[in-house]
Amino acid sequence: MAQLQRIGIVGGTGYAGAELLRLLSAHPHAEVVAVTSRGDAGTPVADAYPQLRGVIDLDFVEPSTANLVDCDIVFFATPHAAAMHDVPALLEAGKRVIDLSADFRLKDADEWAAWYGVEHVCPELIERAAYGMPELNREQIAGADLVAAPGCYPTAVVLGFKPLIDAGLVDAASLIADAKTGVSGAGKSLKPGFLFAEMQESFKAYGVAGHRHLPEIRQTLGELAGGDVGLTFVPHLVPMIRGIHATLYARLSDSNAGSADALQALYENAYADEPFVDVLPAGAAPETRHVRGGNMCRMAVHRPGGGDTVVVLSVIDNLIKGAAGQAVQCFNLMIGADENCALAAPGPLP
């Protein structure tokens, strides 16, 4: 039976940190004992999040190993290139770590440095990190002391492509991922392109020449395919707060294989035992509002016109299944709790 875990959250004032607080405050095996924030240290957590009044009775503290010494598991909800400075000392102190940033996702430290603009300070820990996508690495996550939670786009894209690649039905050299996200994926920083007056009634692609999630998606799909994959990935920003919709295209290796019924059965069988992947009935189209506030990835598979292109529609809440919820899912595996714990409630509508 899972025991009560004392939890620290580093970076508690960002959107992912806020969702961690909300989810873990209702978790029967978690007691949040430390929440850090450089800018708000000394102020009550409930001042930043009034919805947590009477639920979280803590003040924010400065991020330091000393302030996390009483924790069993520490979640990092910090900007990229921050966690790597503190993780080594926490692991040395016997703490377990779940990092929601990209610091330990890429296996090649030089490639990580090229995409994130700084040298990695503890590349020796990269191989130690379990990639935190339970649908791929459930057993590895359960035994890990360092988990690298996946990015939001990689979660929607990888889960969508996985059954096709596992079955060897498609040309892995010509995959296309056309993905849209809400503005919360950019965090709380004030950037002109994310202001309401700039985003409302508009819609744009970004990172077309190269997005930081591209090498992570390629790495993960390549591991599934047993070799390099060819992926065109184009993210878009849409005027909504949260959610990701990934439209995925893959060309069948054999146009005589993979009828619409066979593809539907492939996806249903692939995810039959997964608590947080829901394959919709044939002909359906998931919407981002159908996953808002929940940890579910909903998807549908199509073969338009009986042609040789398979289209997969994959939707998640970028802050839950794409961040905090998936991290809590990993936490449940690490402590031997039910994987659904604190995550089973459906999201709100409308």
Automatic annotation (TrEMBL):
Involved pathway(s): Amino-acid biosynthesis; L-arginine biosynthesis; N(2)-acetyl-L-ornithine from L-glutamate: step 3/4
Annotated keywords: Amino-acid biosynthesis, Arginine biosynthesis, Cytoplasm, NADP, Oxidoreductase
Entry EC no(s): 1.2.1.38
Active site: residue positions: C152
UniProt cross-references to SUPFAM superfamilies, sorted A to Z: Glyceraldehyde-3-phosphate dehydrogenase-like, C-terminal domain, NAD(P)-binding Rossmann-fold domains
Localisation: Cytoplasm
Top-level division of the source organism's lineage: Bacteria
Occurrences of domain Semialdehyde dehydrogenase NAD-binding (ranges): 6-144
Enzyme category, top tier: oxidoreductase
Catalytic activities: N-acetyl-L-glutamate 5-semialdehyde + phosphate + NADP(+) = N-acetyl-L-glutamyl 5-phosphate + NADPH + H(+)
Main location: cytoplasm
GO molecular function annotation: N-acetyl-gamma-glutamyl-phosphate reductase activity
The keyword Thylakoid belongs to this UniProt entry's keyword annotation: no
CDD domains named among the record's database cross-references: AGPR_1_C, AGPR_1_N
Pfam families recorded: Semialdhyde_dh (PF01118), Semialdhyde_dhC_1 (PF22698)
Function: Catalyzes the NADPH-dependent reduction of N-acetyl-5-glutamyl phosphate to yield N-acetyl-L-glutamate 5-semialdehyde.
NCBIfam families reported in the protein's UniProt record: argC (TIGR01850)
Family: Belongs to the NAGSA dehydrogenase family. Type 1 subfamily.
Official protein name in the record: N-acetyl-gamma-glutamyl-phosphate reductase
UniProt source species: Salinisphaera dokdonensis CL-ES53
Lineage: Bacteria, Pseudomonadati, Pseudomonadota, Gammaproteobacteria, Salinisphaerales
